[in-house]
Amino acid sequence: MKAILGRYLKTIDWYIIKKYMGTFVFTLGIFVVITVVFDISEHLDNFLKNHSTLEEIAFKYYAGFIPFYMNLLSPLINFLAVIYFTAKMANQTEIVPILSSKASFNRFLRPYFLCATLIFVVSLFANIYLIPYTNKLKITFENSHSFNSDDVAKTEVHIQLDKRTFVYVQSFEASSHTGFQFIMEKFDGDKLREKLYANSITFDSLKKVWTIKSYTIKYVNGLREKWVDSTNKQKDTVLDMRPTDFVVYDNVYTAMSTRDLNKNIIKEEIRGTGALKEMLYEKYRRFVYPLSSYVLTLIGVSISSRKVRGGIGLPLGIGIFLCFTYIVVDRFALVFAVKGSLSPLIAVCLPNGLFGIVGLYLLSKAPK
């Protein structure tokens, strides 16, 4: 292994790799510390009001908070780190001798892309396996400690449970797991065979069943109808739905493992509650977002490898502007995917696609 690395990585490569990774890790650490400090100041009242222990805060909330923001910020911090140390190398006339020694610019990019690959692999692993688990810790803590003061229950919910069963809930109370004005319809093809009306339906978390209270059933057989009145009765039934289908929390899909997310996507294709696009966006994003390490590294090297007047200020300013632009494009893509008609896959690929084109153009203008 050492012989292979010695063959392809020279002294200058190790020099760039050390600068790259050192600047990236240090900058990412600083940003995470600042983010945690601001978050503590924002949620201190929640911690005190709910009598949260130090162990809960550290190993449940921040054990999910820190990995999430490290993964979220890593491509942008990577971008700024590349610009900073590369512009500093150019300002100190370290890049000119490298390119003057008959080394091509593509050869100069080798250590950069090796580091970008390392960041890509770590980010991909985190997106698929680690972040869903840590997000579950964070979101569970937030929900149990009333971080979200808004009403999280959905209203006017229609769900298709299977090919012949449809349900409707007018309103849902998340705290008691109770839905009101419940209707369940069963079809045979396109013909209605059974329709159940109930004042309320409650989920029993121990028995894993729904209790239907004060219900009436209408049986339909052609032109014949039969009514069964059970106004003062109740019955338990197993339905393929859970209280989570009637409440909405921020980032709830980021807390699902990739396997569970795929299962919910298949189920949502049948149910049609309107969450399919958001699920697909989250699924595709886990695989596509890490590619930004390559795209932003290419742009960072291309705009900062030329020595300019004023030192590293201009490249760093351009880098910060491009960071904000990338974030804006990414947020707009999410909105158009979830709320509009844009395909989730196209929306996920849009930021990296646009900035990839910018990177190739800047590469053609970079000093050779």
Which stretches are poorly predicted, pLDDT < 50 over at least 5 residues?
none
What order do the SSEs take from the amino end to the carboxyl end, as H and E? HHHHHHEEEEEEHHHHH
Nearest-integer average pLDDT:
85
- Give the oligomer, counting copies of the same chain as homo and different chains as hetero: single chain
Count of β-strands: 6
Radius of gyration over all CA atoms, rounded: 27 Å
Question: Descriptors for this entry?
Answer:
6-stranded antiparallel β-sheet; single chain; 368 residues; alpha+beta; 6 strands; 2 domains
Task: Provide a descriptive summary of the structure in words.
59% of the residues lie in helices and 18% in strands. It is an alpha+beta fold. It folds into two domains: 2-146 and 278-365, no CATH class; 155-246, no CATH class. It has a six-stranded antiparallel β-sheet with strand order 1-2-3-4-5-6, with no helix packed on it.
Q: Layout of helices and strands, plus pairs?
A:
Layout: H1 2-8, H2 11-49, H3 54-91, H4 95-100, H5 105-108, H6 110-144, E1 155-160, E2 165-173, E3 178-188, E4 191-204, E5 209-221, E6 224-237, H7 258-271, H8 276-288, H9 292-304, H10 313-338, H11 344-365
Antiparallel strand pairs: 1-2, 2-3, 3-4, 4-5, 5-6
Helix pairs in contact: 2-3, 2-6, 3-6, 3-9, 3-10, 6-9, 7-8, 8-11, 9-11, 10-11
